[in-house]
Amino acid sequence: MNPPAHIDGSSRLDPLAEVAKTLGHPHRLALLEQIVRGERSVEKLAELTGITVANASQHLQHLKRAGCVQTRRDGKHMLYRLGPGPLASVVVALHDYVEFQHSRIREAIADSRQRPQEMESVSIDGLLDRMDEGAVVLLDIRGDEEFAQAHLPGAINIPLEQLADRIGELSRDTEVVAYCRGPYCVLSMQAVSILQAHGMQATPLAGGVPEWRAAGLALQGSTGPVS
Question: Active-site residue among 119, 170, 178, 180?
C-alpha cells in the first residue's frame, strides 16, 4: 500500500527542513557570509563576526556536519571554506528575499503616509472597545497553520492570497480590522488596501498575536484557549 501523498510530500521536504534548521541561526549565517568571501581561519572568522572563538568553532562544526563548509589544516590553524554546491547562491537569495520584504514594508509605509486617514491603525485598546460594542469583524490574514496555533478571540481566518476571491464572506456593513504577525507586518496593510478597493471600511491593527499576548489578553487556538 502506498503512503498518503501528504506523508510522502512531508518526507521529501525533510532534507530541506534540516538545511533550513542548520542555517537558522544568525551566527552561522554571519560566518557563512565571511566564508563566501574566501577561506578563513576560525580565529579570523570570530574576529570578523564579533563572536568568541569557542562560539564560532561550535557553529562551524554544525555547518561542517551539514556539509555547508569544509576544512583543511594549515600549520596550527584550521581553515574553513564553502562546501560543494550552490551555497553562495543560497546566501545571496536570502539577502535578496529580506530586501524584498523590506521594500514591501517601505512601500506600505509610503502608502500609509500618502493616505493617512485610510491607513490609520487601531490600537489593541481601541479594538477591545469595538469588540465590546460588536461593531467590528476581526480578520486574521496569516496562513492556516499559524491561525490554528494561536489567534485573537473571535477572529476569522482568510489568508491574504485568498482574500480577493473570498471577500464576499465579509459583511460590507461592518468595519473590518485586519491583523497579521505584528505592527510591521505588511500583510495587514495589503489586506486593508484590498478591502478598501472593494468599497469596504477596513483598518489595520497596530499589533498582532505577540502584542495581544504581551498585553495579558487571552488567545484562542485549535485546541481552545492559549496561554
Answer: 180
Contact 28, 45 (CB under 8 A): no
For 79-124, write each residue's pLDDT tens digit.
999 998 888 888 888 878 777 766 765 665 565 555 544 457 889 9
**CA atoms of 32 and 60, how far apart (whole Å):** 9
Question: Which CATH number do you get for residue 15?
Answer: 1.10.10.10
180 is catalytic: yes
141 located within any domain: yes
Q: Is residue 205 part of a domain?
A: yes
Say what the pTM is: 0.52
